[in-house]
Design brief:
2 copies of one chain form a homodimer. The first copy, chain A, contains 10 helices and 10 strands. Chain A has about 300 residues and is an alpha/beta fold. Chain A is globular and about 65 Å long. In chain A, about 50% of the residues are buried.
Amino acid sequence: MSRYETVLRSRTREVVIGGSGPFCVIGERINPTGRKLFAEELRSGDLSRVGADAVTQVAAGADMLDVNAGIPLVDEPQLLQAMLRAAQDAVEAPICIDSSVVEALEAGLSVYEGKALVNSVTAEDDRLELILPLVARHGAAVVGLANDETGIPATAHERLRHVRKIVAAAADFGIGPEDVVIDPLAMTVGADTEAVTVTLETISLIASELGVNMCLGASNVSFGLPQRHALNAAFLPMAMAAGLTSAIMSTAEVCVQAVRAADLLLGHDPWGASWIAAHRARVAAEQTAAQQAPAAAP
Amino acid sequence: MSRYETVLRSRTREVVIGGSGPFCVIGERINPTGRKLFAEELRSGDLSRVGADAVTQVAAGADMLDVNAGIPLVDEPQLLQAMLRAAQDAVEAPICIDSSVVEALEAGLSVYEGKALVNSVTAEDDRLELILPLVARHGAAVVGLANDETGIPATAHERLRHVRKIVAAAADFGIGPEDVVIDPLAMTVGADTEAVTVTLETISLIASELGVNMCLGASNVSFGLPQRHALNAAFLPMAMAAGLTSAIMSTAEVCVQAVRAADLLLGHDPWGASWIAAHRARVAAEQTAAQQAPAAAP
């Protein structure tokens, strides 16, 4: 359980990260990185997949959506605005505006209707001084990455030092700890067998010392390995037990189900009410499909 | 990583719980509790299912097998002996001899060939004094349950007190900490929303203070809830991250895969060698099946 509630809003819907509530699933899919066809479509001005991916991910259980427009040599501020408009028109879920380009974050915030999660700032002085005033001015919340210009620290205690700096800097700009969501950084275990252990230790330290909400890119852990969904599905409950309260992640059924199972196990779904309701809905859908199948046959 | 290695042996095979090695999956299935047909077969002297269940569970990834003969009004020592003989004849995996009846444990140990895991003793004085000498005499290892005659403690610290007592009593009988495997007790989350949280805290405390190996009945957590395998598959990685080194559990694919994924994530499968090998074997088996399918068609 985190000490704070981070409230995000779309035009019509409010989502809370943390407190005693369930984990916040942030769909990772609206991101052209590693998606060649999607990148080509976006480059040519075809945004149809943005809305489609938004609808699919929300149907699969996403509470929020990450939107990223990072394509080399495009006008990222303009593209991000167009993608945010398309996503907002398609679904009610609040959005995590994802860019490393300050101008793109600014352009995105200017078209976002609600309270966005801005992804991200690091512990680098110049980034903090550029991005935090922007977040404060728009009344948004911000993701803070536990690294600085020297790279990603190898130990949990070094990462914690960056986190303290980000939380303090945010306070200086009038952003309270409830609106700082820390990314403890998940690296791939295929490149470093200690990667996940360090991430879990970082999560535990942040939870016990600061109690702020946390969000990480969960799919990173399995990069380069086979059966990635199964690895991600095992990683998420571990990270949740350590104190993680949200993730930018795949909405593959096995991953979302692992999160909802962990919610129940950790007491964030009292008496399994949501778990049992989801099970009943699935059984009902299967029965409907089974009844319709023979009638649909020629 | 636990501080000790618990070595178990069958006639021909050695299995290690703990150290830096992978998690030890102990198949739960050879147990008549809640299996009406199996109980009837055993009662009538038909032991065919013991061997079949042993083979199936080992094929599904079990490193060891639990064998329990607890049927009301049967001669449990005699039945347990027969079941142990059948299981030993069917597979090479070492066995966890499971009974609450001291005479049955004694009878089981007398026919077991190798170094067994005796399941279990509690922190009750009379149980410790009856069972530990038996374990010592047979050179076996023992599962110690973190409860006493007053029931299962609600808090992790109270459970730890029982664990300290068991480890100390074992030492008095010449059984070192490497041969004491503690059951931190997993209760169903359907009856108590704090159940899993307390179990995870107990595991962490035992791991940091005593460093002994641990084993629990993982399927208990999901009792009475739908989609039990999915809940168990989310629970196991959490418990492993906290320090659990073995479990008596279902060998359903989703559960075993969650354990092997967690092994990789926690650095107990360096560079994913086992994970990748299992993936390749699965792909090869699927290809073989696909090639044979058309030929088998009429």
